[in-house]
Design goal:
By secondary structure, the protein is mainly beta. It contains three helices and twelve strands, in the order E-E-H-E-E-E-H-E-H-E-E-E-E-E-E. A hairpin with a 4-residue loop joins strand 9 and strand 10.
Length: about 170
């Protein structure tokens, strides 16, 4: 099953092995609910071990997570820069998408393919699609209703409205 990145361990937080995580999910409370399974992956994205969440709290982009399997500060420190992953599920609400699904899509404007999404960026104002045009130039499309007309994951297409100067 496909795995999704939910964060990176940036350091230990306490003597009991709690870790500070740079969050890469907007569903931290759901992902780190007590008893949930999370996968620890090294820098090569190889899964090292399965972890069980025992407690969680958030402070903006930083999550503080305690796992049953990590019990000391030294062990937590040894996992600095490791990734935390979860299994991808199909339980998203209508109108919500995984970034990894959007990154596979062609971008269409006025019925013509104008490029392909190469990355989904999270800026303070909104989520934005980084698109590589057919000519090789990169441009951004805010992922808000004024610019996004339709998303079809089945056809791997996103219909957008482009304003003058965006391309």
């Amino acid at each position: 099953m496909e795995k999704l990145l939910i964060g990176y361990i940036i350091s230990s937080f306490s003597l009991d092995g709690t870790v500070k995580v740079l969050s890469k999910t907007n569903m931290s409370a759901k992902r780190y609910a007590k008893g949930n399974k999370v996968y620890l992956a090294d820098k090569s994205e190889n899964i090292v071990k399965e972890l069980t969440v025992s407690s969680f709290r958030s402070s903006g982009e930083i999550d503080f997570v305690k796992f049953e399997e990590i019990t000391t500060k030294e062990e937590a420190d040894s996992y600095k820069s490791y990734s935390l992953l979860v299994e991808k599920t199909d339980d998203l609400q209508k109108g919500f998408y995984y970034f990894s699904d959007l990154e596979k899509c062609n971008v269409k404007a006025d019925g013509k393919i104008v490029g392909k999404v190469i990355k989904v960026e999270e800026f303070p104002a909104q989520i934005t699609l980084r698109v590589k045009s057919n000519e090789g130039k990169e441009f951004f499309v805010p992922f808000i209703k004024e610019f996004i007309k339709n998303v079809s994951l089945e056809n791997q297409e996103i219909d957008v409205v482009l304003w003058e100067g965006m391309l």
